[in-house]
Amino acid sequence: MQDLTPADALACDPQLAAAIRRAIDGKTKPLGALGRIEDLAARIAALKGTTEPSVETCELIIFAGDHGIAAQGVSAFPQAVTAQMALNFLAGGAAANVFARATGVDLKVVDTGIAEAIDHPDLIDRRMGPGTADSSQGPAMTPGTLAKAIAAGRALAEGSEAHALAFGEMGIANTASASLVIHKLSGLPLDLLTGRGTGLDDAGLTRKLAVLERAAARTGALTAEQALAEYGGFEIAMMAGAMIGAAGLRKVVLVDGFIATAAAMAARALEPGCEPAFVYCHRSAELGHRAALDHLGGQALLELDLRLGEGTGALLAWPLVKSAAAMLREMASFESAGVSGKL
């Protein structure tokens, strides 16, 4: 199977689509009995270009980076937590580590630009700087730095041998960045996109919204590149690049929560052909995620009131993705099993 160039659409040709539908309907079950798992299996088969897709391995890449806008008090936690949590991932103690072990997923951690540089033999260094600039005052990063971040993410995805890639993030104030990026890309109002993040109280939420409105007022309509440079985080930009790179190789892209959805929205705008590779894994409790998914036309597999990030929702959805592909590849048909079909 030929790899896709970034600009290629992953559209399934009508003959393959018909073959996939026949394969699913011919399995030993009533028509439609597996519900949305059948739809998921059909999407994976179309992405892989075969009625017997193999999606056996998954890797989670967690991108960690800091945000200058944190100085405006938009988070309930101090910026030092980004470095501390990155070390926690590397030590295997976070929720993402637990879920990754439980689901058989390899986990990697990437420093995209943590304010406090850390040293660990397993940390992947792709630092763009000690955190972005304060986007309420000016651009978060230069266009040149943005291009480097996108390219770095794409290279990481292209270097993975896994059949599916999940992407997580860690960065104090990254819900603020995600809200601004989604606002500029979608036109959705900031009051619909601004949530409590790490647990802001009512006063903190009011302050956060005021900061974001002031930041957004600095610019008018923006392209995807401009929105990421003005308001994105290094981790969001790198994740968008990784999503594009993974889609170009026909890997299943497991889109996690609110911040990952901001990266997915940016990736779709940068390379419209990449979207069919995306599986929206869960709808988080973060205000704005529902609106963002509705704007994208994405139906999440799970709704568990998660608001953690780290790729946790993607990890929990991974068994569903793996099972959907296995159903197409391994489940007997009425003909092969000698089972009578519907009269």
TrEMBL record:
<dbReference type="InterPro" id="IPR036087">
    <property type="entry name" value="Nict_dMeBzImd_PRibTrfase_sf"/>
</dbReference>
<keyword id="KW-0169">Cobalamin biosynthesis</keyword>
<dbReference type="InterPro" id="IPR023195">
    <property type="entry name" value="Nict_dMeBzImd_PRibTrfase_N"/>
</dbReference>
<dbReference type="Pfam" id="PF02277">
    <property type="entry name" value="DBI_PRT"/>
</dbReference>
<dbReference type="InterPro" id="IPR003200">
    <property type="entry name" value="Nict_dMeBzImd_PRibTrfase"/>
</dbReference>
<dbReference type="InterPro" id="IPR017846">
    <property type="entry name" value="Nict_dMeBzImd_PRibTrfase_bact"/>
</dbReference>
<dbReference type="GO" id="GO:0009236">
    <property type="term" value="P:cobalamin biosynthetic process"/>
</dbReference>
<dbReference type="GO" id="GO:0008939">
    <property type="term" value="F:nicotinate-nucleotide-dimethylbenzimidazole phosphoribosyltransferase activity"/>
</dbReference>
<feature type="active site" description="Proton acceptor">
    <location>
        <position position="310"/>
    </location>
</feature>
<keyword id="KW-0808">Transferase</keyword>
<comment type="pathway">
    <text>Nucleoside biosynthesis; alpha-ribazole biosynthesis; alpha-ribazole from 5,6-dimethylbenzimidazole: step 1/2.</text>
</comment>
<comment type="similarity">
    <text>Belongs to the CobT family.</text>
</comment>
<keyword id="KW-0328">Glycosyltransferase</keyword>
<protein>
    <recommendedName>
        <fullName>Nicotinate-nucleotide--dimethylbenzimidazole phosphoribosyltransferase</fullName>
        <ecNumber>2.4.2.21</ecNumber>
    </recommendedName>
</protein>
<comment type="function">
    <text>Catalyzes the synthesis of alpha-ribazole-5'-phosphate from nicotinate mononucleotide (NAMN) and 5,6-dimethylbenzimidazole (DMB).</text>
</comment>
